[in-house]
Each structure stands twice: as C-alpha cells, then as structure tokens.
Amino acid sequence: MNCRVCLTPTRPVLDLGRMPLANAFLTAEQFEHEFHYLLGVARCPRCGMVQLVDSVDPRRIFHANYPYFSSTSKGMIRHFGNFARETLSDARAAAADPFVVEIGSNDGIMLRHFVEAGIRCLGIEPSSNVAAVARTHNVPTLEAFFDAETANFIRSEHGPAHALLGANVVCHIPDIHETFKAARILLAREGVFRFEDPYLGDIVRQSAVDQIYDEHVFYFSIGSIAYMAAAHGLELIDAEPQAVHGGSMRYTLVPAGSRMPTARLQALMQREASLGLNDESTYARFRSQIEEIRRDLVGVLHKLRRGGARVVGFGATAKSATLLNYCQIGPDLVEFISDSTPAKQHKFSPGMHIPVKPFAAFTERFPDCALLLAWNHAEEIIAANANFIANGGRWIHYVPVVRVV
Ligand code: SAH
Ligand code: TYD
Ligand code: ZN
C-alpha cells in the first residue's frame, strides 16, 4: 500500500489477519453475520507514519450504539479535568471571549469543565448515544464527523476556535489530511490545536499488540506529527508524554510561526530518534515479542484450566478484541469478562464470543485468576479490588510480558 500521508510505498510491519471490529459487542443472534476486516499495519519509510493497511468505513464503527463511554474510569475523569484546566489559561490568554472546540467529545468528560467555567465551547461527536449523554451535562454537542465542511460550518456559526482539542480521536480518522485541513480552517490566528493519542514509542517498547485495532488507524510519533503539521501550515511546538492508555503523547500545534517551540519538544525529539522507530529491526523485535506473549499467555491459561482454576477477564476493552482474537482465547479459557459499561453487558465479546457481565458477577464469586484486559487502568483497578487479592485471587498481566501475581 501507499502511505496515507505522503503516498510513498510502505513497508509491512504486522499482519494480524481477519478481525472483528473491536467495539462490536454482539448478541448471540448476531454471531452469524459478524463483520470482519483484515487487520494489518505498515510504516512509511519517508514520513515515518505507522498506519493500518486497510481502514473500515467510520460509519460502521461510530454510530448510535457506540459502546465506549469515556467517563467509566476515575483516572480518566481526573486526567481530562487536568487537560481542561491546562488549556483554560491558554484559551483565556488568546481572547477575551474564547471559543473551545473538542473533536470526539464523547460523553463530555473534558468539555464539562469548560461549561462550568463559563467558556463558550462545542463538542463534535458523531456517535449519537454518547453525544446525548454529553448534552445531559449541558455540553453543546454537534453530531458530525470532523472534516473541512464541519469546520467551515462551525467557523461561520461561532467564529474561529482558540483551542481545538482532541483525545484518542485524531488517530481514529482515516483521512488525516482532511483532519489537519479542517483544523487549520477552524483555528484562530492565536489558537492552539492540542491533541493526544497512544504513542508509537510506548506501543513498541511494551509490545502492546492490543493497541492495534480498527479504530486506531494511525500510531503517531513526534516525527510523523511534525510532518503532518508542516504540510498544513501548522507547526508542532510542544509534546508532553502522558501516562494514560498505556503511554500517550499530547501534541500542541499552532499556525506556523506564531509561537516558539519548547525546549521540552527538542529533548523529546532527541529521545525519539534513539528509539529506532524507523528501523526494520525494531519491528522484527516487536513481532517476536508479541508471539512470545501469545505463547506464554495461552500456556498459562491452559495450565490454569487443566488445574481446574476459574479465570475471568477484567474490562471488556476495545484492545482486548485484538488480544483475544490474536491468541484465540475463547469462553473455554476465560469464563466471562467483567465490565461496568451497561452497553457492553449481557452481550458477547467480538470474535471470540466471551460473555460480558456486570461487575457484580466478579465480586459475587471471585475467580481464581483475573486476566487484566484493561491493563492501562491497572493501578486504579488493582487498588479498587484489594478484596479479590485478599480472597486469594491473582491478576494475570500480559504487558509487557506475561506475569501472574
Ligand atoms: N475523547 C474521548 C473519546 C475517545 S473515543 C476520550 O479520550 O475518552 C473516540 C471518539 O471520537 C468517539 O466518541 C467517536 O464517536 C468520536 N469520533 C470518531 N470519528 C470522529 C470524527 N471524524 N470526528 C469527531 N469525532 C469522531
Ligand atoms: P479503556 O481502557 O479505555 O480501553 P479501550 O480504549 O481499549 O476500550 O476501557 C476500559 C474498559 O474497562 C471500559 O469498558 C470500562 C471498563 N472498566 C471496568 O469495567 N472497571 C473499571 O474499574 C475500569 C477502570 C474500567
Ligand atoms: Zn508517508
């Protein structure tokens, strides 16, 4: 395939074969007609962008029954409170009556802070069910996919944005040139475009194969974002590592030449250069490490099963669809997955069809072991479930290596 960014022929990174959509939890009646696509990753030797080989039509993924609600973790609520507070001062410095727009605002986890502070804001959210929750928190929300047409419409209705924000959404949109073009259209001259996504350096470092799924079309690095910015009259002036989602990077872009890049950006670019993100050997190591994870995890689960132990999954994450299907782990090895999201409960996991049950099913009768599928929330989950360990339970981790503790 050719690179979505610069059209250069790409190099293959990984081929995971036929996969179901990661957030397509389903009922038993739907098993027969389950949708699959081919999941493969490639990298561009010219601009450095790591990307899916084939992407799925976003309308198949983001719709009235999108089951991901951002506010299901206390840690994420805190994280987006901080993100909002840090941006508030920037927006206030840019204009007397600043306007803040968020792409992929979901249930309003971040924008509700701007609403509370009396700042004009607008969320852009195509999944109508999560958008409806945002509106119950008084977050003005436009049900649309962010593109140049939407940006022009918003600018004509509300004026330019002093802060354009996004979390875990820019990497979801296949037409990345359209996203950046739209950002440039909407952004005020003094404005900032600030977004964060899982960081390629952290994915490779931790062999986090489960970060690869249909919604994650791009695996950004500082270098690939600097390239995108320059192609659209923008400039990357800052980057900040974030602990969320197993390691993310927050990028700050401004209209080219409007602000000086930070010293922190320089330092992070130097660090990135040492990670080998453009070297074939890095991805060869990644492939062998994920195979090792698969072998070890399947081995551990079979051994527990043979010993008569009960194993359940914790957190019906999108990520877990890749892990479970890649390892072919089904209900014979993992009895059910506990998840606090009503939209996922009483359904089955994509592809492997493991039942998803409410958290009460986990606490009613603790299993012997719990596979920590929401490993990015490990600290929060392990702390909140101390009684599981007190009852002799053990957590199974698989990132960066398989461990039972
Ligand atoms: N920002 C939230 C939600 C991330 S999930 C968080 O970090 O928790 C990605 C969200 O982006 C979904 O709610 C999805 O409906 C939305 N989305 C997907 N494509 C989009 C697009 N083109 N424009 C705006 N939002 C989009
Ligand atoms: P998330 O980590 O955001 O992963 P992904 O982006 O891969 O979907 O999703 C966390 C999931 O775990 C979500 O479905 C809610 C669930 N969850 C629980 O069931 N209990 C918890 O204590 C936490 C923190 C999350
Ligand atoms: Zn390229």
Secondary-structure blueprint of this entry?
Layout: E1 11-20, E2 36-43, E3 50-52, H1 58-61, H2 74-94, E4 99-103, H3 111-116, E5 120-124, H4 128-136, E6 141-142, H5 148-158, E7 161-167, H6 176-186, E8 187-198, H7 200-205, E9 218-219, H8 222-231, E10 234-242, E11 248-255, H9 263-273, H10 280-306, E12 311-314, H11 318-327, E13 337-338, E14 356-357, H12 359-364, E15 369-372, H13 378-384, H14 386-390, E16 394-397, E17 403-404
Parallel strand pairs: 4-5, 4-7, 5-6, 7-8, 12-13, 12-15, 13-14, 15-16
Antiparallel strand pairs: 1-2, 2-3, 3-9, 8-11, 10-11, 16-17
The structure holds S-adenosyl-L-homocysteine, thymidine-5'-diphosphate and zinc ion.
How helix-rich are the residues, as a percent range?
Answer: 25-40%
Q: Let me know the largest β-sheet.
A: 7 strands, mixed
**Number of helical regions:** 14
Q: What ranges have pLDDT less than 50 throughout 5 or more consecutive residues?
A: none
Rounded to an integer in angstroms, the radius of gyration calculated over CA atoms is: 21 Å
**Structural class, please?**
alpha/beta
